[in-house]
Amino acid sequence: MKKLIKLLFIFNLSLFSYAEEVDELKYGFLESTLVSSFADARVAAKVWLEDIVSDNYEKKANIEFYDSADILYKDLISGKLNMVVLDLEFFFKHKKNIEKIAREFWSLNTFGTVYSQYYLIARKSLNAKGFKNITGKSLAYKKGDVSAEIWLDKNSLSTYKSEAKKNLKEIILVKKENTALLNIFFNKTDFAIVTKKTWEIATELNPSIKKKIEIIAKSEKIHMPLIGLFRKDVKDSRIKSFFKATENISAVEGGREIVQLLKFDSLFRVKDTDLNKLDKYYKEYFELKKKYK
Question: 2-113+223-273, which class in CATH?
């Protein structure tokens, strides 16, 4: 919990350097995008960060963590918030309306790569060829990884015309991706979904993994953990200051240790071309859910 709070401190302290131009910082986090499993940390971080802004910049800060994307969205529309962080599923459900009031989309660079790619991996002894072979089997992925969950469901809907939970014998949620991989290695699970980076690190450290586990499906390299955005009425100078302040978070005192530990590198602007790829991906997913609900 202390590590998470410190990460939030480092990340937001750099963000708050742009508060010098703002009378009040109104910033909303959707819990599931960052701190879903750390309720105590959320409360402590809110108090701490608001105090930091007050003490260092003599500005009032209003930092809120939301458990409802709908309420956060309403506060963005009403102007109660000028910058928010959303999960991708909610964003693309409401993309057309969000784009009417928001701009300058951004996300976090994790694992040293801007966009993530997922692998479906399996025990070689299963001789599995893809999602078509997961029926009646067990599968593990990291708890809270919405992108992995949606990729699983999207493929299950297109293959079986039903959600993954109806086709799998068991879905196992683990705290770390590496655990999902090792569960296969030790014959505790049949399948797992992990990022490309996790697979590369694990197999480099232990090459024998490839003797027992194989990659049987790959996602597109388009995924990101969250999406942040500004209201359109936020001044250009404020947005410019925000991105300048976050160019090198690791340079903040104590920042390098934490960002390396949590595999968080930097913040990046989301390109329109990549947003369009994700838009197509989520439209296909929503259509499948509607067709086979």
Answer: alpha beta
Residue by residue, DSSP assigns 164-204 as HHHH-SEEEEESSHHHHHHHHHTTS-SEEEEEHHHHHHHHH
Residue pair 126/244 in contact (Cβ under 8 Å)? The answer is: no
What count of other Cβ atoms lies within 10 Å of the Cβ of residue 14?
Answer: 20
Residue ranges of the domains in the chain? Answer: 2-113+223-273, 118-218
- Write down the mean pLDDT value for the chain: 81
Whether the full predicted model's pTM is greater than 0.70, yes or no, is yes
Selected from 3.40.190.10, 3.40.50.2020, 3.40.50.1820, 3.60.15.10, the CATH number assigned to the domain covering 118-218 reads: 3.40.190.10
- Helix H or strand E encompassing 2: helix 2-16
Chain segment 123-146, per-residue pLDDT in tens:
999 999 999 999 999 999 999 889
Q: What is the DSSP letter of 134?
A: -
- For 54-103, how does the pLDDT look when each residue is reduced to its tens digit (9 = 90+)? 544 445 557 788 888 999 999 999 988 988 989 999 999 999 999 999 99
Angle between helices 146-160 and 272-291 (to 10 degrees): 50
Q: Is the dihedral of CA 244, 250, 254, 259 positive or negative?
A: positive
Task: Characterize the bridge pairing of strands 83-86 and 118-123.
Answer: unpaired
